[in-house]
Design a protein that fits this description.
Length: 458
């Protein structure tokens, strides 16, 4: 683990190396491109000037050698078949045909051609520029070349200057930063010592620093923390008690989930094993077993869907599809399934039909949850009253104690006496979330051992 001033030193060294390397590469290619562009431009101008004054090819070898002494360029005259007519830097008779050279092919096609290539003859890299010209009604190529190694000398000088410039300012910056880092280290050591004492016991002194605004604010906050430490200790016992309750609720939720899945899984596993082991099972019995498997699979799927819906509602990701719906129609769709599930029970609808825009699927689920709760915890008929501004579901069941009325809306909450909502404690949470999406309100009135009244206000 590094100290702050060591971290600063390492960081600045890395910055210096990265900056120097980047500037070196950028400067090299930038200088090279500018230089080569200028060479190319000069070569074209020299070829143009030379082609104007060149009237014939008499004594051409002498002419181009004299010209080279003045402009220090390699000059080559090539005929249209690629043969060397004159050359300043080599014996033309020893040189191969140049018709297939890249700059000649390009000049023959576009008038001017250029290429940078290493010359095996001269053992140097040159920039060649060739231009197609007409002399005495004959087509020739005038090629001039310049050496690119000049850029190396210029580049080395520029690199040394840049390196010296960067090094000078970097040393100044590093010195200042190192001084700052040492001061910061002093402040942080003071804060660390204070925190060490704070972790063991309440400190006997207060921090005081005005080096920077940040350190000033940190020390003020730490002093406040020290003052509040005693209060936190008192709250610790309360938090521990809350944590125990939360852990107990978590265990109850896990137990509830385990219980909900255990029975269907056991039924599916048992019936499946029976079918697999009994090849001579009657068809009717097999169909009965398969229906049992199907029912319990659907039950597990329903539990999972309810958990998924809970997450969507909680995260606000459930979308509404609002369409005009009849509440009586929704009730007539819900009630038959509930009457099949709860035999010999009567569900009465009182009042005139109501119609407004709702998400039929979600509202059906909310109303069905409320009616099923009423069926679970009462033995008498269930009354559903429709008014101009509300739907009221009444039962004469066991009721809810006053202390539990607000808590039963919470997710996974179950009244200890009766396991209110359902075994997972999601029923009223889902109802509350669905109604909130529609801007409806759920009002719960209940008397213990007398019955409950659930009112949907819209």
């Amino acid at each position: 683990m590094l100290k702050i001033h060591q971290l600063f030193l390492r960081t600045f060294i890395l910055i210096f190396l990265g900056l120097f390397t980047s500037l070196t590469i950028i400067t090299y290619y930038w200088s090279k491109n500018i230089y080569i562009g200028q060479i190319e431009k000069n070569l074209v101008q020299n070829i143009d000037a030379f082609s104007i004054v060149l009237k014939d090819l008499k004594d051409i070898s002498t002419i181009i050698k004299d010209l080279k002494e003045h402009i220090s360029l390699r000059i080559t005259i090539i005929d249209e078949k690629g043969n060397i007519i004159a050359e300043t830097d080599n014996d033309k008779d020893l040189m191969k045909n140049h018709l297939d050279r890249e700059e000649i092919l390009e000049a023959n096609k576009f008038g001017i051609g250029q290429v940078m290539r290493y010359s095996n003859t001269l053992n140097k890299e040159l920039l060649y520029v060739a231009k197609k010209v007409t002399i005495n009604k004959q087509m020739y190529f005038i090629r001039m070349a310049d050496y690119t190694d000049r850029i190396t000398d210029n580049f080395l000088k520029l690199t040394v200057q840049i390196f010296a410039f960067i090094t000078f300012f970097l040393i100044i910056g590093f010195s200042v930063s190192y001084f700052i880092s040492k001061r910061i280290q002093k402040e942080t050591d003071s804060i660390l010592n204070f925190l060490t004492e704070l972790s063991n016991k309440r400190p006997t002194y207060s921090l005081d620093t005005r080096y920077t605004v940040e350190f000033y604010k940190i020390t003020r906050l730490l002093n406040k923390v020290a003052l509040k430490l005693s209060k936190k200790e008192k709250q610790k016992a309360k938090q521990t008690a809350k944590l125990k309750i939360a852990n107990r609720q978590k265990d109850e939720i896990i137990s509830a989930l385990s219980h909900e899945f255990k029975n269907p899984i056991a039924i599916i596993s048992g019936y499946t094993e029976t079918i697999l082991n009994d090849n001579e099972m009657p068809l009717l019995m097999k169909e009965k077993f398969l229906k049992k498997i199907h029912i319990n699979a659907n039950k597990m799927s329903h539990i999972i869907d309810k958990l998924r819906l809970t997450l969507k509602l909680e995260e606000g990701k459930q979308e509404l599809i609002l369409l005009p719906c009849s509440i009586k129609k929704i009730l007539h769709d819900i009630i038959p399934d509930l009457e099949d599930k709860y035999k010999n029970r009567e569900i009465l609808i009182i009042g005139e039909d109501i119609s407004f825009k709702v998400d039929e699927t979600l509202i059906s689920m909310a109303i069905s949850n409320l009616i099923e709760n009423a069926l679970k915890y009462s033995d008498d008929e269930i009354n559903i009253e429709l008014t101009n501004d509300s739907i009221i579901i009444r039962d004469k069941g066991i009721g809810i104690e006053e202390a539990e009325l607000e808590k039963i809306r919470n997710k996974f909450y179950r009244v200890s006496n009766n396991g209110w909502n359902n075994s997972l404690g999601l029923g009223l949470f889902i109802v509350q979330a669905i109604l909130s999406l529609h801007n409806f309100t759920l009002i719960i009135n209940s008397e213990f051992n007398k019955g409950s009244e659930f009112i949907i206000k819209y």
